Amino acid sequence: MEKKFYLSLKMRLILLMFVIVIPLTFMVTGYQRMFEKYSRSYNEIMANLKVANEYNIKFKSDMEYSMYRVMIGLIDVSQFENGDILEGESKYATVVKNPLSMIASARHSFGKSIERIPGSDGEIKIKGILSCLDSLENAVNRMIDNASVTGKYDENVNIWENDIQGLCSMIQDYITQYTYYEMINMEYLQKELEQQVTKRIQEYMILLVFVLAAGTLLAMAITNSITGPLERLQQTAERLGKGDLDAKADLDNLEEINILARTFNHMSERIRKLLEKNTQEQKNLREAELRLHQEQISPHFLYNTLDIIVWMIENEKQSEAVKAVTALARFFRISLSKGKSIIPVRDELEHVRNYLMIQHMRYKNKFSYSIEAEEEVLGLASLKLILQPMVENAIYHGMEFMDGDGEIKIRAWKEEENLYLSVEDNGLGMTEEQVERLFTDTGHVPSRRGSGIGVKNVNERIHLYFGKNYGLSIESEPDEGTTVRIHLPAIAYEEAVGKEEKHA
């Protein structure tokens, strides 16, 4: 009888194991397959966005720069047969990209590298890009052919203005639209994932309840030492079903129960990590978008500055030209900042000072400016490129229609544990409705001249890095001027950089 009882207990333990482990294994496998499916789709979208963003950033400026050099006759187009052209000394050399190679690379990337669904909005935009690339290639070939023929300058100017620039802008617009549709696809993917997770949890919880009930009945027939762990496991499952993703099953002195508990905890941890990963990836994507806008420098600002320098040189104003070149170099050095988003207040003020110096050379007698900063704030941390958009708005909007006597005041000071930066102008001012739109709309200066970094963008960047307690505030009255105040935490630059590197 003792042997029979022992065998019966063994069989019941084996049955209990199968009743519990097999369904749970099915659940874990189902979740794994589901997330693998969505992970593949997500990776495809991210790969497409990476390709699109690379060309959105560089293609237009590189193409226009190369063809502008061809148009004005500063390079020998025959050198393009050997690839890109290197201008200047090695230390200060400038690379002029081969336009035909750029077009070929873009055609390959958008024609073959990017995965797309036939008939989708994304494919329509890609077809538009490829069509523009074909037209652009024809225009480039015409200009290159004309470069070796005397008397074709006016024709090349016409090609540059009506074909090259227009097609590059169309390509950039198509890329932007394609990126937008890909973002929508990612949003749809996220919503579908959330719906599937909810559905699977509901289905599996029903199965899990059934498994636990059957296991409890079997355990009660075997020994009371099994019912206790199973009841605790059931409670943990119910917590998980109610949304407590930190719920963990306790280990017991029975290895069979421990295997079940570890499997359950693995499933719970995997769900929690996947949801956290999805949330973090969405945040990282938004940060990437904002950084993309942050890193962009208006080509029109650069062209205008270079025109000023050329004019100074032609009029033998070498000292002023040197001053302008130095200011532009410092402007770019701080704009790049080795890819860092956090810079000292000292550098942020220096960046806007160089920007104002260049704009003051361009708009002579249009405005004056001053920069005041307490010594103790210079070593504090600031986000890069948060003052320039405000100053840019003040120049292009506040003083565009003024006859002179414009004034821009920039201040930086500390109050307790808070850092404040302000941009004050005596320009045209704004109504309350206009101020409100700056925070709800794009809120930036026109794209033909502006940086593309608006009030809303800067405010969102501050929220992302420092929290909702910090950001922008604007005081303005029509015909009375505008004051933009930036509120940041008073954190030492070294401390802020350490946190940023740790986060990265």
Tell me the layout of helices and strands:
Blueprint: H1 2-71, E1 85-87, E2 94-96, H2 99-113, H3 121-147, H4 153-222, H5 224-241, H6 255-295, H7 299-314, H8 318-336, E3 342-344, H9 345-362, E4 367-373, E5 381-383, H10 388-398, E6 406-415, E7 418-425, H11 432-440, H12 455-466, E8 471-477, E9 481-489, H13 493-503
Parallel strand pairs: 4-6
Antiparallel strand pairs: 1-2, 3-5, 6-7, 7-9, 8-9
Helix pairs in contact: 1-2, 1-4, 1-6, 2-3, 3-4, 4-5, 5-6, 6-12, 7-8, 8-9
Task: Describe this protein's structure.
With 504 residues, the protein is an alpha+beta fold. It has 3 domains: 2-38 and 193-290, no CATH class; 56-183, de novo design (two linked rop proteins); 299-503, Heat Shock Protein 90, CATH 3.30.565. The protein is 67% helix and 11% strand. It is built from 13 helices and 9 strands. The protein has helices at 2-71, 99-113, 121-147, 153-222, 224-241, 255-295, 299-314, 318-336, 345-362, 388-398, 432-440, 455-466, 493-503; strands spanning 85-87, 94-96, 342-344, 367-373, 381-383, 406-415, 418-425, 471-477, 481-489. The strands form 3 sheets. It has a 5-stranded mixed beta sheet. A two-stranded antiparallel sheet has the order 1-2. It has a two-stranded antiparallel sheet with strand order 3-5. The chain is extended, with a radius of gyration of 31 Å. The termini are far apart.
